[in-house]
Amino acid sequence: MKPSRLPKPASRAIRYHSAQRHQRLYHASRAAFVSAAASTGSQSSVNPDEIALFSRLSSQWWDERGEFQMLHKMNPVRIQFIREKLLEMRREDGEDAASADDVLKGLNVLDVGCGGGLLCESLARLGANTLGVDASASNIGIASTHASSDPSLNYSLSVKSTSPAPTSRGKGALTYEHTSAEDVLATRGPRQFDVVCSMEVLEHVDNPRTFLRNCADLVKPGGHLFLSTISRTPLAYLLTIFAAEHLLRLVTPGTHTYAKYVRPEELTQFFGDYRSAPESRPWISRLYGGVPTRTEAETRGIIYVPWKGEWTLVPRGAVGARWGEGCNYLFWVRRPLE
């Protein structure tokens, strides 16, 4: 018995609609970069729909088997990258740094889009004076409640202030504020933090270039900006939207928007053009084969290994390292001394 076949007109219609779908995906990818380039510094980066979604999910932040289980597993790799990069740069600067355990002690760190405080608590335990901010009041409420219940953390309830971040050189202080990056910049002023982090946030904001400028302006000269986000590739769509949202239901459908994903080369290009002041040099001053020097910026892929149930940081210079940046990746860039 021969397998049944669709009539030719129907078969052509299916191929046409499939091609149309891929074409829409391609043009959405292009439109995201064009619209980002056209954004201006006066636009807000806060997306009310994104804030509403994460506010609804906020009660699950500290459930290691719930909605944010993959972020719990990713957190050790984020910390590993931050510590290793800071230690590398201290040694590059000729400073003494005995180990990665001490490299964050006494630094003023801002975590933008801190969610329930997964990264913030880790940073504070390592000695960083950490301020976590989020545009969702529910997220800040959960983060504050969790931190206040742990006596090992040096947590204090924060009230919005125009004063600089705490500068204690002892145990890392931890505070939270319900606010946005642009409001922190407006109230505290620029060049306030040794380190600014924003993990898995860039793909959820409006006007990503405005967001990047605000985060960059908050970094002290010689300071560091760390980002974690998702590249805009077919592989990323397959893994983070088709599989994670619709097939496996690991996260709520609609959590991610493919057109908002940002490719590593787009971040490199942005900071290759970005100057803290008109007379200063760009944050990335030169490229070698499209790759910045490791003392100015670096991109590292992070890959989930399902048989281990953990994320791993792709080694620098590994075979297929660029492929490893095709979905989730970490990005570091350093503000030039002025």
From TrEMBL:
S-adenosyl-L-methionine binds at R78, G113, D134, M199. It is a peripheral membrane protein. It catalyses: a 3,4-dihydroxy-5-(all-trans-polyprenyl)benzoate + S-adenosyl-L-methionine = a 4-hydroxy-3-methoxy-5-(all-trans-polyprenyl)benzoate + S-adenosyl-L-homocysteine + H(+); a 3-demethylubiquinol + S-adenosyl-L-methionine = a ubiquinol + S-adenosyl-L-homocysteine + H(+); a 3-demethylubiquinone + S-adenosyl-L-methionine = a ubiquinone + S-adenosyl-L-homocysteine. The keyword Transferase applies. Coiled coil: none annotated. Keywords: Magnesium, Membrane, Metal-binding, Methyltransferase, Mitochondrion, Mitochondrion inner membrane, S-adenosyl-L-methionine, Transferase, Ubiquinone, Ubiquinone biosynthesis. Its cofactor is Mg(2+). It holds the Pfam family Methyltransf_23. Its main location: mitochondrion. It is found in: Mitochondrion inner membrane. Its EC number is 2.1.1.64, 2.1.1.-, 2.1.1.114. Mg(2+) binds at E200, E203, H204. InterPro entries: SAM-dependent_MTases_sf, UbiG_MeTrfase. CDD domains: AdoMet_MTases. Pathway: Cofactor biosynthesis; ubiquinone biosynthesis. Component of a multi-subunit COQ enzyme complex, composed of at least COQ3, COQ4, COQ5, COQ6, COQ7 and COQ9. Belongs to the class I-like SAM-binding methyltransferase superfamily. UbiG/COQ3 family. O-methyltransferase required for two non-consecutive steps during ubiquinone biosynthesis. Catalyzes the 2 O-methylation of 3,4-dihydroxy-5-(all-trans-polyprenyl)benzoic acid into 4-hydroxy-3-methoxy-5-(all-trans-polyprenyl)benzoic acid. Also catalyzes the last step of ubiquinone biosynthesis by mediating methylation of 3-demethylubiquinone into ubiquinone. Also able to mediate the methylation of 3-demethylubiquinol into ubiquinol. This is Ubiquinone biosynthesis O-methyltransferase, mitochondrial. It comes from Rhodofomes roseus.
